[in-house]
Amino acid sequence: MSLVHFQILSAALFSIGLYGVLARRSAVLILLSIELMLNAVNINLIAFSAYTESLASTGQVIAIFVITVAAAEVGLALAIIINLFRSKGSVDIDKIDVMRW
What we know:
By secondary structure, the chain is mostly helical. It has a single domain, classed as Helix Hairpins, CATH 1.10.287. 76% of the residues lie in helices and 0% in strands. Helix 1 (3-23) packs antiparallel against helix 2 and helix 2 runs antiparallel to helix 3. The chain starts with a helix and ends in a 13-residue tail after the last helix.
């Protein structure tokens, strides 16, 4: 498989994730779509690090950092979503106006 195959896969995953962020109303589904977009970026990083000789491990190290940040983001976001569900009874983005003054 060539680098183009990985780029096409990554672009498809990123596009699906972007559609999910823009079209969904549920906060949980938006969170899953963001994770899909981050995984598409990780595929690109790993593919580029595998196909370049000079920076062999740089993409892999950055991908590990992206995975770490994604795990922290999921933990914090799920805590916020659970708190909003307990207070409002819904995770619909259109119905949540807690941050408004």
